[in-house]
Design goal:
2 strands, 58% helix, mainly alpha, 6 helices
């Protein structure tokens, strides 16, 4: 049996950096939970909404986006984007068709229902975001945005 009293004390994850990353992780979980709760009204997950939003924002010509283009716009990594998009197609939220110039590429476009989902959820999501940050001044929001941008640009890719 292990002797727990002889554990080295220097491996506790209590440093300043650990506290910062724990706070970021905790906030991410809380934000995700609130968005999950809100989007459940429309029968959507956060990931599904994110994919629909990427299409809404980036497929302005209505020619469709490839899996790779959609994947680049997602806020979380998705190991199987094809399966995600197939589920959205099964719900009637997107349409998937082979590219006319390269049959290996499947292009995804929003359907009318998908567009309506993004548009009808937009204002409630904006209000949720505003509520989450209502306690901060504009200057604090700008400072936080700047720090987070700097952090996200400079953090090493750990994959």
């Amino acid at each position: 049996m292990a002797n727990f009293s002889s554990r080295p004390q220097n491996i506790k994850n209590t440093g300043f950096e650990a506290q910062i990353l724990k706070t970021i992780t905790t906030l991410n979980d809380q934000i995700f939970a609130k968005k999950t709760e809100l989007l459940s009204i429309w029968g959507m997950t956060v990931l599904q909404h994110n994919a629909l939003q990427v299409l809404y924002d980036n497929d302005t010509q209505k020619t469709g986006l490839s899996n790779k283009e959609i994947g680049r716009g997602l806020t979380t990594r998705v190991p199987d984007i094809t399966r995600l998009l197939d589920r959205l197609a099964d719900k009637g939220w997107v349409k998937r068709e082979r590219d006319n110039n390269n049959r290996r590429i499947v292009r995804t476009t929003l359907t009318q229902i998908g567009t309506e989902l993004v548009e009808s959820s937009a204002q409630p999501l904006i209000e949720l975001q505003q509520k989450m940050l209502a306690h901060m001044t504009q200057q604090e929001k700008e400072q936080l945005a700047s720090l987070l941008k700097s952090f996200s640009e400079k953090v090493p890719d750990l994959s």
